Amino acid sequence: MCGIIAYVGSKPAAPLLVEGLKRLEYRGYDSAGMAIVTDQGTRILKAVGRVSVLEDQANSAGDVVGRLGIAHTRWATHGGPTQVNAHPHTGTTADGHTVSVVHNGIIENHSTLRKYLAEKGHKFVSETDTEVLSALIAQLYHGDLEAAVQSALREIKGAYAIAVTCDREPHTLVCARKGSPLIIGIADQAYIVASDASAIVSHTTQVITLDDYQVAKLCAGPNDSNTAAGGPWSVDFKTTTIDNVPVPLEIQELELDLEQIELGSYPHYMLKEIMEQPEAIRDCLRGRIDMREARVVLGGLSARTRELVRAKRFVLTAQGTAYHAGLIGEYLIEDLARVPARCEYASEFRYRNPIIEDGTIITAISQSGETADTLAALREAKERGALALGAVNAVGSSIARETDAGVYLRVGPEIGVASTKAFVGQVAVLTLLALYIGRRKHLPELAVREYLAELDRLPAHIQRVLEQSDHINQCVQQYIDRNNWLFLGRGYNYPVALEGALKLKEISYIHAEGMPAAEMKHGPIALIDDGMPVVFIATKGSQYEKVLSNIAEARARGGRIIAVATEGDDTIHSHADSVFFVPAVPEPLQPLLTSIPLQLVAYHAAVLRGHDVDKPRNLAKSVTVE
Ligand code: M6R
User: Fold this and answer.
1) 8-22 per-position pLDDT tens digit
2) Which residue numbers are catalytic?
3) How far apart are CA 270 and CA 272, in angstroms?
């Protein structure tokens, strides 16, 4: 995934674009670039690495002025992260003007188009699909940028969110989307286009969201030549389909506070997002627990209650951390709702000709709502007749829009690349879903009441776990030079072990494996040598004694045991070298707590190893390509 931002208005564009790129940097940070357009032509700057390198370049050039510009921060797909491959890409029109494009997505038929355009005389300098799109727009340009973009997009297969300029029209910005996110902010005498709201909210809360195959033409220019540097400027926008059919779009109010996306006093977004989990989960649960009736209230599902209660099978689908939440959902739905459930990697599910029987419910789980494989798996199951549900954080995202019904996570924006509060939000929503169905089927009111009372106490429980952050840091310091870790759990805590290992891998670059504790004996036990950290989720529950046996096996081979245990378990210290405690809750609710010390393990390990916690190497916040 990449981040795009564009500006047309009465202020100098470059500083505004840099500020926006910094907010979008979590979406990709291999390279960055911008194009600034004036009456005199187009000025392009590109840099490999972080946005700050581009910023230095713009500052030292000193003459990057202009009130129309587009910019991009890249996570490489086609072509390596080089200056040449960085966006914007350009094409030259027949009358010698420059068309510039920034793009998030993938043009599938770029090879065919590249060949066609090369025959027409276009000289390509990069390996990217985006340069093909720039050349195509330039080829189709006959004095009207909007028309050229519409024509080009009719030839394109694939996904795109684009912002386009042409220096023959120095007050016009054209943007469009299909399959990749894009919103337009309506600011004072200006328009700001961005991949997500975080880059817009400091300028305006008035936005329009484009739908697939829609194009916006945004114009801003001085009322007369004397007011070019100040105001007033007149602004005007128009939205159409790529077939040039007008589409009136509503202006909406953005539901996002600047404070939610500011780092505040925290050193990293990941730590901020871990620490704000009590509040995030309070927001997630607000209004969804009816203690009086001992019922779960999920407005987004109410129209589908009959289908949910009659469901014969759940297929949960997701990638990465969201997949681990889905695995917990599998346990929850079978255990509490008594409906067969299977969680599948979306990337596997979509290509294996899945059987969708009557009464199947597909549930896509995603923080961003834009993960390409998850979206494709959802579509695949829908086409085969499944009812489509979503458990999504990003409001209005592609997955949220394509589901028949759903439950938003409501945990607020997640900016750290390593997903933390969204994971806990996903598990909380899946717990609510399982109780929603279970209560309407066989679960006794008393049992539901007990679960709901514990959910109500969850923010306070999470707070208690977070208070152990310093203790967890001290423990991690002892093992920080170890390059192999194991994470083991049983039942509900097996997916938590997988998630603990993923967190450690992705931000600290330490090799870690997660697995069912009993599986260790079937091979991985051979890995355990003297001093290897082995993390066990050893909370009180139906399999506690069995986990203690697994701990003994690992310890006998020299493993150093780090246990996540239940408060009040006085004997655990005799089994483990270090212990992190979580409050006692019923087994189905344990992952909501046991995952939290493991987030802190990963965070502290990454900091101790000196890594860039919020921007781990090779990763981007969400993967919008297959
Ligand atoms: O936005 P999504 O929840 O669909 O993203 C899915 C995964 O890409 C994501 O969870 C990824 O694994 C994170 N880096 C994990 O921390």
Assistant:
1) 999 999 999 999 999
2) 2, 621
3) 5
Partner residues linked to 252 by β-bridges? 207
CB contact at 8 A, 232 and 197: no
* Amino acid making up residue 323: Y
Contact 138/169 with Cβ under 8 angstroms? no
Distance from the CA of 556 to the center of ligand 1, in angstroms? 36
Structural tokens at position 63: 């003459």
Task: Name which residue sits closest to atom 9 of ligand 1, judged by CA.
Answer: 320
Domain boundary among 258, 290, 305: 258
In terms of domains, do 232 and 273 share one? no
Encode pLDDT of 72-128 as tens digits: 998 877 677 888 899 999 999 999 999 999 999 889 999 999 999 999 999 999 988
Helix (H, G, I), strand (E, B) or coil at 516: strand
116 backbone dihedrals φ, ψ, rounded to 5°: -60, -45
Distant-in-sequence, close-in-space partners of 269: CB < 8 Å, separation ≥ 6: 26, 263, 415, 416, 614
Looking at the structure, do residues 194 and 250 belong to the same domain, yes or no?
yes
| Alpha helix stretches (DSSP H) within 29-128 | 51-61, 110-119
Question: What distance in angstroms lies between residue 60's CA and the mean position of ligand 1's atoms?
Answer: 37
Pocket of ligand 1 (CB under 6 A): 319-322, 366-368, 371, 374, 417-419, 506, 619, 622-623
Tell me the C-alpha distance between 124 and 130, whole Å: 11
Nearest-atom number in ligand 1 for the CA of 621 is 14
Ligand 1 pocket mutation pick from 316, 368, 429, 498 by most atoms within 8 angstroms of CB: 368
Tell me, in angstroms, the distance from the centre of ligand 1 to residue 27's CA. Answer: 12
Amino acid code (one letter) for 470: D
Tokens of 607: 């900091």
Q: Which long-range contacts (CB under 8 A, 24 or more apart) does 351-359 make?
A: 354/315, 354/380, 354/381, 354/384, 356/315, 356/381, 356/384, 356/385, 356/386, 357/312, 357/313, 358/312, 358/385, 359/307, 359/310, 359/311, 359/312, 359/313
Picking from 65, 54, 46, the residue whose alpha carbon sits closest to that of residue 18 is: 54
Residues 484 and 524 in one domain: yes
- CA-nearest residue, atom 14 of ligand 1: 418
Predicted confidence at residue 489, as pLDDT, reads 98
202: how many CB neighbours lie within 10 A of its CB?
17
User: Domain range holding 540?
Assistant: 468-626
Q: Indicate which atom in ligand 1 lies nearest the CA of residue 399.
A: 4
**For the chain, what percent of residues have pLDDT higher than 70?**
99
**DSSP one-letter code for 227:** G
pLDDT band at 536 (very low <50, low <70, confident <90, very high): very high
In a domain, 462, yes or no: no
Using the atom order of ligand 1, give the atom closest to the CA of residue 422: 3
Ligand 1 centroid to Cα of residue 366, in Å, is: 7
453 plus 493 within the same structural domain:
no
Distance, in Å, from the CA atom of 13 to the CA atom of 388, rounded to the nearest integer, reads 42
Query: Closest Cα partner for 517 from 564, 479, 568?
Result: 564
Q: Helix 421-441 to helix 445-466 angle, to the nearest 10 degrees?
A: 170
| Co-location of 584 and 621 in the same domain | yes
Q: Looking at the domain assignment, is residue 335 inside a domain? A: yes
**Residue 138 and residue 99 in contact, taking contact as beta carbons nearer than 8 Å:** yes
pLDDT of residue 338: 97
**What is the overall mean pLDDT for the chain?**
94
The count of structural domains within the chain is 3
569-609 residue pLDDT tens: 999 999 999 999 999 999 999 999 999 999 999 999 999 99
Tell me the residue length of the chain. 626
